[in-house]
Amino acid sequence: MVGITQEGNRWLISGDLIIDHITQVVNASKALSLVSPAQLDFAKVTDVDTSAVSLILEFKRRAIAENAQLSLVNVPENLTSLMQLYGVDAFLPPN
After folding, report:
1. What domains appear along the chain, each with residue ranges and CATH number?
2. pLDDT tens, residue order, the chain (95 aa)
3. Are 18 and 49 in contact (CB under 8 A)?
4. Burial 38-72 (b: 16+ CB within 10 A, else e)
5. Residue 78 φ/ψ, nearest 5 degrees
6. Is the N or C terminus of the chain more exposed, i.e. has fewer CB atoms within 10 Å?
7. What is residue 94's predicted lDDT score, i.e. its pLDDT?
8. Taking the mean position of all CA atoms in its chain, how far away is CA 56?
9. Residue 59's closest CA among 79, 43, 39?
10. Global pTM?
C-alpha cells in the first residue's frame, strides 16, 4: 500500500515507492497544495525503485511551475543512492 497526505507544508509519503504505485501517488498528489516552502517527507517509505526518482522529478517540475520551493526530508539511504546514481543528488538535503 502507498499513500500521500498533507500536513501543513509537508507532504508525507508512505509505503512502497515502486513502479506499480507511482501513478497512484501522482494522482493523489493533485489534490494537495504546495505550500512554499514545501517538504516531501519520506520517513514512512518502506521500499523504492528507480521510479521513485522519477516521482521526485515530477514533484520538482510541479514546484517550479507553481513557483514554490520544495525540499526532501527523511530520504532513505537506498533512494539517496539511486539519486546519486542518476545525478540528481543536488536535490538531497545537505549532510
Report:
1. 2-91 (3.30.750.24)
2. 899 999 999 999 999 999 999 999 999 999 999 999 999 999 999 999 999 999 999 999 999 999 999 999 999 999 999 999 999 888 777 65
3. yes
4. bbbbbeebeebbebbbbbbeebeebbeeeebebeb
5. -70, -30
6. C
7. 62
8. 4
9. 39
10. 0.91
Q: How far is CA 81 from the centre of its chain?
A: 15
31 in helix, strand or coil? coil
54, 88 Cβ separation under 8 angstroms: no
Per-residue b or e along 8-34, where b marks 16 or more CB atoms closer than 10 Å to that residue's CB:
ebebbbbbebeeebbeebeeebeeeeb
Q: What is the rounded distance in angstroms from the CA atom of residue 95 to the CA atom of residue 84? A: 14
